[in-house]
Each structure stands twice: as structure tokens, then as C-alpha cells.
Amino acid sequence: MKLPFPTHLPARLLAAGFITGSLLASLPAAAGDAKAGQDVFKSECAECHAVAEGRNKKGPSLFGIVGRKSGSVAGYEYSDALKNIGWTWTPEQLHTYLSQPAKKANPGTKMKYDGLDNAKDLDDLLSYLATLH
Ligand code: HEC
User: Is residue 59 part of a domain?
Assistant: First the structure.
């Protein structure tokens, strides 16, 4: 049978795939595991937060949360504490907030959540939040 393409092509494609794959693999990996983080989200946050853009529940949508300015979701009634705090949700800031939201964003955040004290769960969760774009 005559192949419909030059035989050197598949090898090239394979090589290109391999190179792309290794490039991706060598990108700095986030510390956590986003897949596991999704489960953490479901059990810890989904009661009050949706990840769909513009969908607010008890708490604001967390779509695009990493890099977002605090208190900036249109149509969501934040507490004054969060409205005025002027943070940007960097991974570090999220880490601090989510380990103890009531204390760190005091006085007066209305996020009634005690915080996630399991470091691995928090890392996994942060990796998951970073995928919400
Ligand atoms: C019991 C409900 C509840 C739970 C559970 C909860 N949150 Fe919240 N969250 C809120 C509320 C309400 C606010 C708004 C706080 C305010 O205005 O002070 C908020 C605010 C936030 C903000 C700030 C958003 C912004 O736009 O500035 C982040 C980030 C956040 N939550 C992440 C999480 C994550 C991640 C979890 C799970 C670990 C979680 N929350 C669990 C209710 C909750």
C-alpha cells in the first residue's frame, strides 16, 4: 500500500509532539494538584461559591479569582471589610485569607468559613483556583 504522505512526516510529527510534551512538562509546576484541589473545592467552598463567570451564590463567583482585585465582582454585595481592603488575590494572598478568613480579613468579612488548615489541601485548592479562567 502506498502511504498518502511522505514517510518522514509521522516521525516529524512525533518529534514535534514529544518536544511540545517535554516543554509542557518542564514548565514550573504549581505546588499543588489541581485535580485533588477540585475535590477540596467541592467539599469546602462549593456550598457558597460557583466557578462559573458571573454566577454569585452566598459568596461571589470565583471565576478568574487568581489575579483579581478583592471585592470586584459586579452585582455582588460585599461586606465593607472586603470592599475596602484593596487586596489583589495573588496566590500568597489567597493562601493567607483561606487559611483564616475571619481573622485575616477582619473586621467584618461575611465569609463564614473557619479556614483550611491542611497545607496540602490548601496547595491543591490554590492550583485548582488558578485554572478558573
Ligand atoms: C459559608 C459560605 C462560604 C464558604 C464555605 C466559603 N466562602 Fe468564600 N466567601 C463567602 C462570602 C459570603 C464572601 C464575601 C465576603 C465579604 O464580602 O466579606 C466570600 C468571599 C471569598 C473571596 C473573596 C472574593 C472577592 O471577590 O474578593 C474568596 C477568594 C473566597 N471567598 C474563596 C473561598 C474559598 C476558596 C472557599 C473554600 C475553601 C470559600 N471561599 C468558602 C462565603 C463562603
Answer: yes
Identity of the residue numbered 121? D
- pLDDT at residue number 29: 46
Is residue 111, in this structure, part of any structural domain at all?
yes
Q: Using CA atoms, how far apart are residues 73 and 15, in angstroms rounded to an integer?
A: 45
Residues of the domain holding 75: 32-129
CA of 31 to the centre of ligand 1 (A): 22
Overall domain count for the chain:
1
Q: Is the CB of 46 under 6 A from ligand 1?
A: no
Q: Report the nearest atom of ligand 1 relative to the CA of 108.
A: 18
Residues of the chain with pLDDT below 70 are 1-30, 105-107
Paired residues of 88 in beta bridges: 69
Could you tell me if residue 12 is inside a domain? no
Q: Which amino acid is at 32?
A: G
